Amino acid sequence: MKTFLLTLAALLLSSQVIPDSTEDCWNLHGNCRDRCHKNEKVYVLCLSGKLCCVKPKYQPHGLPKLTKG
Questions:
Q1: What is the pTM of this model?
Q2: Residue-wise pLDDT tens digits, 46-68
Q3: What's the CA gap between 62 and 24, in Å, rounded?
Q4: Where is it found, in Gene Ontology cellular component terms (predicted)?
Q5: CB contact at 8 A, 54 and 29
Q6: Which tens digit of pLDDT belongs to each residue from 5-19?
Q7: Which domains does the chain have, with CATH numbers?
Q8: Torsions phi, psi of 20, nearest 5?
Q9: CA pair distance 40, 29, nearest whole angstrom
Q10: By Cβ atoms counted within 10 A, which residue in 20, 23, 42, 63 is the most buried?
Q11: Quick check: 41 and 54 in contact, CB under 8 A?
């Protein structure tokens, strides 16, 4: 029982120490952060208000063209 409680306490503490949230965005290809890394771009904001940082591999290549209907 002591081992279980010790393990549980360690897991709870480690979740508080790890930097950056694990909140995902951009169809799970982006990460929510306060600041993006050098090669990442922001297209939307996360629900938490942080930036949704998207790596170049998953960035859109162009904006869709609008046609008159």
A1: 0.56
A2: 999 999 999 988 888 776 666 66
A3: 22
A4: extracellular region
A5: yes
A6: 667 667 666 555 455
A7: 21-58 (3.10.360)
A8: 60, 135
A9: 11
A10: 42
A11: yes
Residue 55: how many CB atoms within 10 A of its CB? Answer: 15
Cβ-based burial of 51 (10 A; exposed 0-12, middle 13-18, buried ≥19) = buried
Please name the amino acid found at residue 43.
Answer: Y
Closest CA to 58 of 33, 34, 40: 40
Which residue, 34, 61, 62, 37, is CA-closest to 46?
34
Torsion of CA 24, 14, 17, 56, to 10 degrees: -30
CB-based contact 30:58 (threshold 8 Å): yes
CA distance 13 to 8: 9
* The dihedral sign for the CA sequence 32, 38, 29, 11: negative
